[in-house]
Structures are given as C-alpha cells and as structure tokens.
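Notes, Module 5: Reading structure tokens.

Key idea: the token line is not a picture. It is a compressed description, and you learn to read it the same way you learned to read a sequence, by spotting repeated patterns. We will look at two proteins. The first is printed below with its tokens.
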Amino acid sequence: MKTITEFPHETRVIENVYIPMRDGARLAARIWMPVNAEQQPVPAILEYIPYRKRDSSRARDELNHPYMAGHGYVCARVDMRGSGDSDGVIVDEYRTQEHEDAEDVIAWLAEQPWCDGKVGMMGISWGGFNSLQLAARQPPALKAIISASATDDIYVDNMHYMGGCLLGDNLSEATVMFAFNSLPPDPQIVGERWRDMWHERLSGSGLWLETWLEHQRRDDYWKTASVCEDYSQVQCPVMAVGGWADGYTNAVFRLMENLDVPRKGLIGPWGHKYPHIGVPGPAIGFLQEAVRWWDHWLKGQDTGVMDEPMLRVWMQDSVSPAASYEDRPGRWVAEDRWPAPEIENREFTLRGHHLEEVGSDADPHGESDAEVAVKSPLSVGMFAGKWASYAAVPDLPFDQREEDGGSIFYESRPLTEDLEMLGLPQCHFEVSADQPVAMLAVRLSDVNLDGEATRVTYGLLNLTHRDGSEDPSPLEPGKKYRVTVPLNGIAQTFPAGHRLRLSISTSYWPLVWPSPEAATVTLTTGASSLSVPVRSPRAEDARLREFEEPEAATPLEITQTEPGQHHWRVTRDLATNVSTLEIANDQGAFRIEDTDTHIRRGTEEWYSFRWNDVNSVRGETRTVRRIQRQDWGAEVTTNTVLTSTPTEFIIDAELDAYELDAQRGDPRVYSQSWHRRVPRDLV
C-alpha cells in the first residue's frame, strides 16, 4: 500500500475532545482537521464504534482519518458510551441509547465553527451497522454514509443466526465484546476517575451471549435496529461495501434493490476488512473512492462517482480449494441497476445423484425420482471456515470432498462452456424429517478437473423456520414440506469442463450449532431443484474505470515486543472419539510508540464434539487483554463455555481483572462468574 505524506490540506490532530450528550454524559473523540478549518469550515465525517480510539483501533484510524482530513474534511473517531475513554457502560449493541448518542454527536459536529454543517458517517462492521441505522433516523445534518461489512437485517445477516440456525460465531462475537467491554479507560485522558469508571464497566456490562441466546427467533429485539423494516426511512445517499469472504454481502444486493435514494454497491474478494487493506486481494484504492463519494455529496463537486454503474463486483475465477488466499484472480464487472434484467435464472433439477439442467437433453442416466435420506456425522463442517473471514488465521473453507463424505450431493455433467453467476442462488426442496427440529446445510461447489471441490457459496435453514423466523413451528415427523434455502450471493466463473456440485447435510458444526436431536432428513429428488443467476460476459466490463492502487496516510509506529501465533487445527482423538477445532488468534505484545503504551492481545477458541452425540458439542473461548505503561497497567482475562442439552443452552463464563501495580500484594481487583441456562426455542 502506498503511503501518502503530502495532501491538499495541512492537518492537525486533537488527541481527545469530550462531546456532551443530552443526559450529561460525555463521549470521547479523536479529531483530525485541516489547520485552517476554523477560517474555512469543511464537512465532518464520523466513525462511531466501541473499539477504543486510544489503542485498539488506533493503527487503522491513523491510515484512514488523516487521509480524509488531508482532502479537506474534519474526521471524528468517537468512542461509544461505555467504551474507550467515554463515560458510562455499554450493555448491548444497536440499542436506542447508542443511536440517541450518535444523533447528539452529529448535531455537535455540525454546530462547531470548523464544520460547515454537513456530516457524513462511515464505518465497517459495527460502524457500518450504525451508519445505516442513523441514516434511517434522519438527523438533519447527516447527508451521506458509507457502510462496509454491515447489514440491513441484524437477524438474517449477522454473527448470531443464519436461516434460523444458531451460528458458532455468536459465541465468538460475544467473546470479542466480553473482552473489549471489560477494559479500563486511559488515565492520561480521563484522569483519576479511571478506576471508578473501570469497575462500573466490569460490574455493569453483563453477559451479552445470554441476551443473544434469549432471542432465537426474529422478534422485536432484532427488528428495532433493522432498517429493512422500512427502507423508506433511509433518506440520504448510501455507499454499501462488502466482500465475498465476509458474511454480510447479501445486504449489498438488498440495499441496491430496496433503497430509494442515490446509492452505490461495491463487492470485492475481501474478508472483514476495508477494501484498501482487503484480504484476499486485490485490494483497491478505497480511500480515493471514499473521497470521491464525500466530495460529491458533502461538497457538491462533480467527481463522476454517480455517472458510474450502481453495482460493481469482483467476478472471481475458479481456484483450487485453500483455507487462505493472498489474492483471488478475477475481473471487475458492473450492473447499472439491481436486480439486473440481463441476468437469467437457470434451474437444475436434482435427479438420481445428478444436477440436470431444466430444458436440456433428456436425462441420459435413466434414473427415476427417489427419496434420499441423509443423517450427517457431526464431523461435517470441521473444514467449513468461519462465517465471516478476518484473514487473521486460515479461516476459509477447505477442499469439500471430506465434507461431502457425510452429505448427499448432486453433480452436473461437465460444463461445455464457461458459466458465470452473479447474484443469489436458491434451492427448492421437498423434504421430510423424523424429528420435530432439523436443519439443512447446503453447499454449492466448483469441482475442477482433478476432482477438487471449492465451496463457492452455501446456505442454512432451520426447517422449523421454513415459513419465516418470526413464528417458527415444529415439523410433523414424516410429513413432506416445500422449503426454500437461500444461498449467499456470489460472482463466480465456472470453467468449461468443471462440474457444479450441490451438497446437502444435516449438520455443519461448528459453523452452526446442531439440532437438539440427530435428525434424518429425506429429500425427494425430482421435486427438488437448484436455481442459479447466470450472467453472460459483456464487452463493456473491460471498459470500466480502473481502481487506483491502495493508499493511506502514514502508518502508526508500532514495535512488536512478543511474537504472536495464529493457527487453525483439527484433531481427532481415536481413544475418546473427541474431535476438536482449535483456533489461535494471538497478536502477541506490541508497543504504540507515540503513547508509549504496551498492548497484549490474544484469543483462543475450541470447538469439539464426541462421535455423533449432538449434545456433546462444546464451544470454549479464552481471551487476554493487557494495557500497560511504566506507571500504570491493567489486564483482563475471560473464559466462556457454551454447551447444550436437548432443551437448554448452558453458559459458564468467568471474568478476572488485574491492576498491574507492583505495590499490590494481590493484583486481582475484580472477579465474576456466570452460570446461565437458556431454553432452546426450536433451535
């Protein structure tokens, strides 16, 4: 990535400013601005997240915000209430308090002498979520947003549930917030009150995993902050950004289809990263694109951004399966509107063990329709990767042949010509089950000439949610149902000679928590089909404007003091029949030079099961977070275990906090443990 040191505007940074809220609380902000902004006011851009501007997000902030400030904007990175150096306690995500505070921040920014009254909002993940949510609340000064790796529906596309199934990332994400919420503010910013603020957080933030498990269907808890409930509430222009290796890409398609405001969609090959630091590559000059967007909507300049197609995506070439990629080969393609009328749905019927294209020559296999039963081993899914790739460990799906051994699958004949898909595939099945609760995991793979199977997309459906997730109902054993399983959106080339493979399993652990009892699901082949969105190559794709190379401001100076470790290991103990996926995401220890702050950050995860006992599954996470300077320090450790019975989820969690003071005999200053049982609700 190219480092830019000279910008159109000379800038300055304010390390901390307190922004007053309507109830008297104060939120802490770090601000970058042109030095002459008070004489020549400029628009403001807000990033509003709980990830600690003083340390945890500082490296990323240093790349992004000085860059945009150098192009004539005031940039504010605000710690949400209860995080970083802000007052209060954070008790959950996307709640009313968070949104009201953001409205107060936006109004405050617009009123400052260095702001011309216009505000934009941008963010990735949490910051992308609340950018959309604030757009729907229509604060007067908010004129445009950029929302990356986010969703319009926090039940359908989030780290909690998918297709009515409980995701393993529900535990993983709860662990992330457990660790962040337990850290203290910095006494260099908040002064002597840091200890009281810390203890208020330790005792008050709570166990978010329990809250998320208490809402297993799409109830008002999820609807309140989902902008899909009323797209018309979003009244400002929206740029929506996603990546094929991420978990939030489907929302880009929905936003392009359903919003009625100027909008742009961008989907690359990336995981859960901003596109200028995107992995897998190629990364792009995303900050340049952001400046073009802001210049158009906040400064009224004709940058040409709105003359370009509505949706631009990376059409991925076929690759051999791997758990990580440095780059994904492909090319950029674009659509002027979405849904695109030129894209046609092509349907394949499941017959025998084959995918037969509807309208093709008569079935050469001579196989009749049949009822095929599947009851998958729990090992299916151990090579599935994460719901959302962070590219921190090899967390992408590996060769699907091992997964297909515990599945039923249907394969096309070798393709006679290249086949390109863009959009959202769907499966339509006729199924029955022998249990009242059962699930399907459906995977579409690209099978190359060597027989390797690369997962291209997948979908999940808790069959009790067959008619929607607001009011699920148990299955009647033996009764046949018509169900639709949506697959995640794709842009993918399948070369001539390759085959399409559709694989179906009744478990996908640990990506998704298994059903309360092992179920056999029976599928009627001739009455079941796969529908894929086919896009023909177009000459105009080659004439798209090329993205510039990635660039950013000067990176933060960091010194690594202890090495980290990253791994993703699958083990099977044949003596005990216990299989375990072990994940290490340990960043070691490092020093932030400009604040002389030492950081230690590590997370470990274990997901295990014993043979085919669905009630033996176990997820465990451990974290350590340390912040330290010569005269001050704190360390927090967490341990969370999630297990289940046929009727309950069981949470056991521990939190320990230590004040790193050599004069203390016992440095532990806080300890709490939780034991919670949450009834299963058809999950």
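Here is the second protein, with the sequence above and the tokens below, as before.
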Amino acid sequence: MNRNDAATRASRAILLALRVSLLAAGPLAVPTYSLAAHAEEPTGSAVVLVVEGLPWDVDPEAVRAAIGREIGKTVVLSGAAPAGKASFVLRGEGGRRVKLTYRADGEGAIVGRTIDLPDDAERAADTLALLAGNLARDEAAELAALLGKRSEDKPTAAPSEPPEETPSEAPSEAPVEPPAAEKNELPAQEVPAKAAAPKSESAPRKATPARAPAPADEPPTTPTRTPSLEELAPCWRHDATQFFAGANALPRIGTSTRRGSNVVHNLSANFLAGYGTGLDGFELGLGLNIEREFACGAQLTALANIVAGPVRGVQVAAGLNFASSLRGLQMGSIDIVAGPVKGVQMGALDIAGDVVGAQLGVLNIAGAVSGIQLGVVNVATSPVKGVQIGLVNYADRSTFSFGLLNIVRRGRLHIDLWGQETGIVMAGIEHGGDYIHNIYGIGTRVVGAERRLVFSLGLGGHVQLSKRFSVDVDLLGYSLHETPSLAPTAFLAQARVVAALEIGARLGVFAGPSYTVVNARSVEDALLAPYDSGSLDLTAPSPVFGWPGVTIGLRTF
C-alpha cells in the first residue's frame, strides 16, 4: 500500500511539473524576433531578460548575447518576467545609471545591483554581462545561506567589516556551486570555470557594491561559439508558414484566402492591401503593405508600408512608411519609426527615436542623433553627436548646429557687451552648441551728430583652448537706422576674431581684430571709422568703404 501511495504521489508530482512548465513557457511565446529565434531550444533551460530602459546607444540584443556567453546559458528577451523562471530585469534609472535584478528558478530571492555604465556601448554590454554573472552567483550564495551558511553582510556594514569579509569569501564559494548545479543553472563541465571567477570578482563587489562596474576595464576574452539561430535567421518565425510567393487584392482575398495571414512571403504583391506575419524578400503594392511582425528586404508601394515590428532593409512609398525600428532606408513623404534608426530617413517629414545615421527632409524630429540632420527644421530632443544643418535647429546638446537660428537647451549661453572703433556699442546674446553659435544684438552709435539705432545678427565658430580661455571666429551683420523713423542708413558686414578669458565670478573679457565693410545711402552715412577708410567701389550708387578695426567687450559665463 505504501508503494502504491508513493507511486501515486510521484505521478501527481510529474503531472504538476508538466503543468507548471507549460504555464511558465507561455510568456516566452510573445511574438518578438528575440524570442522566436530561440523557439527550437528547450524553454526550461532558457533564462529570460526583461529590458525596461537602457541608454540610447546600448543595444538590448548585444546585452542579451553578452549575458548568455557569461552565464553559459540561453538568454531570451521578453516583455515580462514569467513566474517561476530564472530571469534578469534591466531597468534604466536616468542617464547611464541602470539597475539589474536577478531571480532564480522557483521562488528564489531577488538580488540586484545599481551601476553607472561606461560611455562605450561595447564595454557597457560586457559590464552588464559580468554583473549578471555575479548576481547569478550571489543568488546561489544566498540560497546556501538560507540552508545554514553565514548570512551575507549588508552594504551598510561598518567600514571595518570588509577586510574581515574578503578572506572569508573564497571558502564560502566551494559549497555554493553544488546547489547551483542541482538547479541546472550551468552545464556540469562549466562549473570549475565559473567557480574560479567569483574569487577575483564577486568578493570585492560584496564588500563594496559600488565598485561593480570596475571589471569593465578588463573585459573577458570571448570564447569561440556557434552563432545562435537568431543570428543565422533573424527574419523567421517558428509559428508562421513560409511561402515563396503570394498575391492579394485585400487581406483574405487572394492567396491568403486559402493560406491565411500567418505567413512569411519571399515575394508578395498587393493591389488594395495585403497583410501577413512577415516579409523576407520583396513586396510590391499599390495600396497598403502591412506586416504584423517584421520586414526584411524591400517594400515598395504607392500609399503606405506599415510594419508593426522591425524593418531590416528598405521601405519606399509615395505616402507613409512606418516601422517599430529600422536598420536600412525609409524614403517617402512621411517616414515614422517608433524606435531606434540605424540608417537613413528621407522624406518631407521624418520622425524617429534615437538615430544613428541621417535624417534628410524638410522637418526632421528625433531623440538622440549620432550622424546628421539636414533639413529646413531639425529637432533633436536628446544630445546630437554629429551635425545639424538647417534654417532652424533645436537640440538638447549639440556638437555642431549650423543655421539661422540654433536653439541648444543645454548649450553655451553668454550675455555680451561690446564696442568697436566706429563708436557703436552693442548688447547681445551668444548662444549655441560646442562649436557653432549665433549672435543677436541691439545697440546704438554713441558718436556723431545724429544717434543711430543698431541691430546685429551673427554666426560664429568656437574653440575652447582651456577651461577659461577660448577663441571665436565670427561673421556679423549690422543695420543702422534713424530714430525715431527707423529708416535704414547703412549696412555693415564684419569679420572678427576675438579671444575670451574668464576672469572669475562668471565674468570675462574678450577682444580681437576685425575688418568691416559698409554700404550706405550717402558718403556721410558711410564715414563711420574715426580714421581714413578705403573706398571699395566708387561707381556704386551707394558708397562702399572698408577698414580694419578692433572689438573689445565683457562677457558673462
């Protein structure tokens, strides 16, 4: 009777385990390219990675691959951490600060670390991989502590405790590895290699958790490995049927009448509209080309190409192109990418998340830009590490914004007061990015029989030679007007080179040589220099004179 009871309980346990594994596998069936690529691998051996925010230049796919290499297991991206499965959750906390947490299979405790990522994207992925491996080993140590081992010290322990903890760390690793092996977290042949790593990395991290990113300075060597299915076949879905060619007048009217819409075509032709899971080749349409998961290849249509997932290739439409992310080219009247772009957008209106490449259009809108925005109006809500060229440019920060009006939210801003040999005294604003700025000024001519109201507009380049010393090369235009009628009397074009020195209390001085050319309505209005000036054009209806001069001023920093 006892044997029968034991057999009954064993069979029930097996059935319960099967149900739990099926429930746990459910969230892994989310139709994203990262999860589908691992569909042929056993879901029970995979570790889930949930990304809830990363700096714009860090690729979640690179992080996933690096963590997989570090822990020696298959890692898949998911929208949520499934219950009862080993999972990492990566959450951005602003800037380059991120928090990575880990929970082992079953009801394991959650452990985590918050670190600042290196500026280099590849080093950032390696740093997260090392941290993930450390957290996985920390989890094993905590489980061992629950079984009767020494409890782990809190990060707020007294400063005298770390020296006592460091030597005790190495012996504690020996009993930690067997429970990890029992949980099937690592293949048996890899246990010695992983057991040696905590001796040099995890021990100091437990004593001083803030030093977790330090190993990024010495990235580990990457072992030779076989490319994953996702790398070999990124444009593939395990739950979709592959067909070489299809044609539809409308969704479900055409070849999809018999085959359905859960298909991936190599060649697709659509009259009014076509709808499928994905494209791995070429799609031609007159109306709407719609793909639910991805498009790899080229989409051409007269009206709109709409892909609810990533696009790797080319979208060309007379109307609208849409994708969740892009690696390639979009060319249309309106190009919209909900996520990052690595490539080029060319249209009247280009909208994207972070851009690595180029936006070439009338109105360009993006997050961070590493490349070029060329248009009439360019908007970047995050830093620009490249070039903006347009009539109006806006950026959070910018290395080079060139236009009639440049607005850099966190750029250089100086209030200037300057005078020159003509007796013109000006007050203005110099504002711009790291290398290019605009100058806007208003002033008056304080010498002469009649007062003149003066307006100025300029564009210049900036070179920061030291913390307190810089040199600007500026081109300015001045217009002189009668008062109170505001009738123009003369126009000046001036080139100047000024050196600026910050002398303290956010105040500085600047000075340098200049050369000015004036075009006036009369000889009297043109004689602005206090000394002889050379006539450049005696035959012109309005006299033109030019002379060298000097500019001296004060500047706030």
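Summary for the second protein:
- Confidence is low (pLDDT under 50) at residues 20-42, 142-212.
- The chain has ten helices and 32 strands.
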